[in-house]
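One thing: could you explain this record?
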Amino acid sequence: QGSDPGDQTEAVGDADAVKATGWGIKSLKQVVPYILPAATGKSGDDFGDLNELYGGVVQQWATELTHVTTEVGGTLAQEKHVGQTGNRFVPLPRARQKNAVKFLVDNAFATPTYFLRDDILGKIEVEGALRRINQAQTQVLGALFNDRRMERMIEFPALANSPSDAYPLGEMLDDVRKGIWTELGSSQVRIDPFRRELQRSWLTIAKNKLNPPPLNLPPGFPPQFAQLVGPARATSDVRSLFRSELRAVQSEARAAIPRASNRETRAHLEDIRDQIEQLLNPR
């Protein structure tokens, strides 16, 4: 049911998705300097191959990081039948889930500067680096904030023999917010364009958790499919926790505005403040 981190195309079985993706990122960093010589052919060719290869490497980065999200709210699943002992689904340890979120904060939500090579970007596009990186980061963030994952993180502590052994959704959201909005605590607040894009993606996802768009399944899809891809239940804690997260960001953004060190950062924080105000108190 998509909850076991060992049931995917990488780090299969009992492998550690965080460790595997850490190795993958090291490999990608080593690959990037070879993209240009590998994708440029004979004199007179265009840079279509370079564009395709570079885009593929960035997408591979996002794919591998998305595998790490399965550790969060994840379970160890083992097929069992009547007569066999033990549960089919056992939640992953709290420390393992929390470590996965820290890995994502450090590797997915920090700007991957090793991709920002002028010798490549200057040949394939007049603009688009911001869009490309933001799309990759938003893919990972959207997977992390999957509604089924978040509902599991609400349910696991409720069923645990010792709630302190679980990694609750509120704590996960708090860890992610602190990682994505870390600049707000600085004495001189300066948020670069890549981080501003990521923060707006966070806000867009948060908006959709408060007011989910209607789910329109393609013709022929069974109704049960809606349980896997539909929004969180109206009675779950997801909406209330995201509302709390929005209030926290609004308060920190409002306090950070006087400390903004450039016009773009100030405008960004004012916009965030106003958008959240309109969302929480619609006129």
Observations:
- Residues 17-39 form the longest helix (23 residues).
